């Protein structure tokens, strides 16, 4: 009986050791990562985020600059025990200094497809030591949303042509092609990106008119989600004569949906887009 009690005591000590080593002061440097942490109701472990991250207003968190240009001094000033970031997090020199200070730095792949998104949920759940029921519930919600999007795609009579236009203040708008965050949303929703090229290119009013889009998604890079659709029509009034303009299908795409890869915001925008595409004859 005594050997068993000793073993049980040892087991308890090991268990307590692992529990005490769980991260409690976390920095999230990447909007997609922060979005998942919020969805997992684990914001209580956050002490700071980068400028691109969106958190509930009730959370009073330090903002430590943009995830590409972080400083070692800023990161260490909030005394983190774990920093989680995207592959764009940097610079490397700052992260090396933080690692030398015995702070764990973890990099998660950017989710470009549902499979990687689900893997990132599992990885975050492990890093943050969250209840497995919470991560399982989030993955179930993601899978259910993907199923709803697939069902909507099944109702499409044809593959509508969609354009994504990025507003840039006084400069000419840019058209988003293949490989862009908006393209991922369009494709997932069942639309066809009418750009016909990869990346971004400046687009004139005549170019957009000639593409004859069924729907136009618009964004102006700002965290306040300005009414970019209204701005676009005011700047390029002839767009009102495209199929998209005639059917009042020049719509805003939230900034959050374009940041940090495929995540809850991008899925929400894709589902909203899929609902609109179903209505196109």
Automatic annotation (TrEMBL):
The keyword Nucleus does not apply. Pfam families: Peripla_BP_2. It comes from the Bacteria. Residues 25-281 form the Fe/B12 periplasmic-binding domain. InterPro entries: ABC_Transporter_SBP (IPR050902), ABC_transptr_periplasmic_BD (IPR002491). The keyword Magnesium does not apply. This is Hemin ABC transporter substrate-binding protein. It comes from Ferrimonas aestuarii.
